[in-house]
Amino acid sequence: MYSLRCIECGEESKEDSYNCECGGLLEVKIHLDQVDLDFKLNGKDLSVWKYRALLPVRIEPVTLKEGGTPLYRLERLEKELGIRRIYVKHEGLNPSGSFKDRGMTVGVTKAIELGRNAVACASTGNTSASMAMYAARAGLKAYVLLPAGKVALGKVAQALMHGAEVIGIKGNFDDALKIIREVCERLKIYLLNSVNPFRLEGQKTIAYEIVDEIGLPDRVVLPVGNAGNISAIYKGFKEFLELQLIDGLPKMTGIQAKGSAPIYKAFLERKEDITPVTNPETIATAIRIGNPVNARKALRAIYETKGLAEVVSDEEIISAQKLLAKNGIGVEPASAASVAGLIKLAKQGMIEKDETVVCIATGNLLKDPETAIKVCGEPKIVEASVEKVISLL
Ligand code: AN7
């Protein structure tokens, strides 16, 4: 059993709404006292749907086997920074190559449950790729609005190939989201951005899987764009706490890119809401977002866990992307912001030496091949001869 509730006034809402009448964001309230916990926290068979008892759906899910992503240890970085344990959860190994799949399996299932035949989103890329894939699986029409020229190549390719109607606008993500919200309202299309509270329900399973595999960490570090994921993961931990499956909460630590950092700025001033950034810019186009819709939820997650917010430069992002790659972990720039932020915070002495830290790597390296080639340089080209090849080695 569950209901939809406003995070500001507590009023209940209908299942197909995205905002309370007071304007507040909605949240799914799972009635935890009525849940039959039919899963074991044994580190085995991790997946989004292992935790179905805590997910708000009533029908068989539309699934492509999402979740169950690996948790890797970064021993060399632990030594370098003098931190006890550093893990990376590689969400780039989900079906479409990002954590968005956890949300879409639930969101698209909800669209079917509500009898909708079309879904839509604005996106910096990964949401659109994932939505197109799950909509295709479910046989729904998919409409995507992108900031033209500012979406990584792999993501556009996925949205197109999986059959979404893809439109680029001459504006940024924040403009696109504003437009698609109104389009969805007028044309009765189901909106799958992270204002949709059901999507965040799927994403909260990142927290469940971490606890399932290693127990309660001291800190979770992740990149923040529209601020849905940090809110979702926090909610997951909070539910496990309420169910007495853990006895505390990790410090939620959100990392933004320097040119797109409204949440970091609000955090510095201890504010509960943001002032939007009008021209967000960063090499990590996935988090090139100036007006995050879930900002209030995200700031609560940070304050209530005594977490942190930090900003990183494009150079720090690329350097962390290369560090991860040298450890065999291929991620896109936005994902590397988590590790870049951890390194920066550790060097400032903001991380305790005995912490267990989990960084979320949100998307796969292949999402943004153009940036990878730009920062690594093109391969050398030589005559087709053994001698010439050896001369280069
Ligand atoms: C790789 O696809 O907003 O803070 O439209 O693709 O939950 O927004 C992507 C966001 C981090 C930020 N890492 O997550 C979109 C979109 C990657 C991302 C984020 C995104 P949120």
Can you put this structure into words, describing what you see?
The chain has 393 residues and is an alpha/beta fold. It has 14 helices and 13 strands. The strands form three sheets. Strands 4-5-13-10-11-12 form a six-stranded mixed β-sheet, with helices on both faces. The chain has a four-stranded parallel β-sheet with strand order 8-7-6-9, sandwiched between helices. Strand 6 (118-122), helix 3 (126-138) and strand 7 (141-147) form a beta-alpha-beta unit. The longest helix has 15 residues, at 173-187. The structure holds ligand AN7.
Q: How would you briefly describe this protein structure?
A:
The protein is an alpha/beta fold and 393 residues long. It is built from 14 helices and 13 strands.
SSE order, one letter for each helix or strand = EEEEHEHEHEHEHEHHEHEHHEHHEHH
Name the average pLDDT.
Answer: 97
At CATH's second level, what is the architecture of the domain at 71-97 and 199-375? 3-Layer(aba) Sandwich
Helical amount: 25-40%
Summarize the biggest pleated sheet.
6 strands, mixed
Spans of at least 5 consecutive residues whose pLDDT stays below 50 are: none
Q: What fraction of residues sit in β-strands?
A: 15-25%
- Termini separation comes to 63 Å
What is the CATH class of the domain at 71-97 and 199-375? Alpha Beta
Strand order of the largest sheet: 4-5-13-10-11-12
Class derived from helix and strand content: alpha/beta
Kindly state the number of beta strands.
13
Number of helices: 14
Instruction: Briefly note the CATH topology name of the domain at 71-97 and 199-375.
Output: Rossmann fold
Please state the CA-atom Rg, rounded to the nearest Å: 20 Å
The global form is: globular
**Ligands present:** ligand AN7
